[in-house]
Amino acid sequence: MNKQPKLTLVGAGPGDPELITLKAVRVLEEADVVLYDALANEELLAHAKNAEKIFVGKRRGMHKFIQEKIHDLIVSHALKGKHVVRLKGGDPFIFGRGSEELKFVISKGIEIDIVPGVTSAIAAPASFGISLTQRGVNESFRVITGTRSDLKLSEDIEAAASSNTTIVILMGMSKLESIVGKFIAKGKNHIPVAIVENGTKKEEQLAVGTIETILELVKEKKLSNPAIIVVGETVKESEVLYQQLLNQKGKVL
Ligand code: SAH
Q1: Domain 6-118 listed as CATH 2.60.40.10
Q2: What is the helix (H) or strand (E) element at residue 142, kind and residue range?
Q3: Is the dihedral of CA 209, 138, 21, 3 positive or negative?
Q4: CA distance 39 to 58
Q5: What predicted TM-score, i.e. pTM, was given to this entire model?
Q6: 1 is catalytic
Q7: Confidence band of 2 (pLDDT split at 50, 70, 90)
Q8: Per-residue model confidence as pLDDT tens digits over 107-159
């Protein structure tokens, strides 16, 4: 029997397939169709035993699925009386265009639901013991995209660089040189920086340095996307924790 058309937007978590919520797993089990991105761990699709699985991300030189095509796929499947799950990496509302997809399907009279996810902005640093707040060190953290929709560097980075906040930058690796330049222009050469590539996944990598040394470290370790850049004194304060975790994993910085 056909169900009520429905879209559930689901956060897939940062990468580790266990870092997904129980609710997300239940929704995947009940799904008829799952549309998933490159950042959603494919192992999670095993939960969606009865669903048609459609990849709608960008991968290995393939053209990016245009957003309108994704909207059309969601609506056409839902209107056949199916429960469509849109599985997105991390939390779907953090630089995930989740709200755009929901607004579109609402305009077609389709029911919606949302299952929040564990965002990589917090989980990738946390998995290496890097705490975004620290008592007596900072009073806030700020999550900023490195790359705006017009592909320019976000001006928020320069503004945040003037304050004491911990700065977490997503989609920033291709702009790292300009980001470093913004801090150097404010004389903040010695602020600690951590970069977590593929956080919470088997291939995770960590680099820790300062504004002055980070470009060299990235080159040495060949770090690239997906990665989270954390800039702030809390990185230094977390040294005991990340050293311990690296030791336990038999890794070195
Ligand atoms: N909605 C997602 C973010 C999407 S934007 C979330 O909440 O996590 C894509 C960016 O997220 C990437 O460019 C990278 O900066 C970051 N990212 C996603 N998964 C990551 C991971 N496992 N490790 C490091 N960075 C990650």
Answers
A1: no
A2: strand 141-145
A3: negative
A4: 9
A5: 0.95
A6: no
A7: low
A8: 999 999 999 999 999 999 999 999 999 999 999 999 999 988 888 999 999 99
As a whole number of angstroms, the distance between CA 100 and CA 245 comes to 38
Tell me the helices (H) and strands (E) count for the chain, helix number first. Answer: 9, 10
Average model confidence (pLDDT) across the chain: 94
Whether 199 shows a pLDDT value over 60: the answer reads yes
Cβ pair 171, 146 in contact under 8 A: yes
* pLDDT in the model for residue 250: 92
Q: State how far Cα 240 lies from the chain centre.
A: 25
The single residue of 6, 88, 91, 171 carrying the catalytic annotation is: 171
The domain segmentation of the chain, as residue ranges, is: 6-118, 121-249
Catalytic residue among 58, 69, 186, 249: 58
Extract the tokens encoding 10: 């689901």
Distance separating alpha carbons of residues 243 and 174, to the nearest angstrom: 27
Peptide bond into 226 cis (omega under 30): yes
Domains 6-118 and 121-249 in one fold = no
Residues enclosing ligand 1, CB less than 6 A?
14-15, 39, 88-91, 94-96, 119-121, 124, 170-171, 196, 198-201, 225-228
Percent of the chain with pLDDT over 90: 89
Fold for the domain defined by 121-249: 3.30.950
What's the 80 CA to ligand 1 centre distance in angstroms? 32
pLDDT for residue 61 is more than 60: no
Torsion of CA 125, 128, 133, 136, to 10 degrees: -150
Pairing of the two strands 166-170 and 227-231:
antiparallel
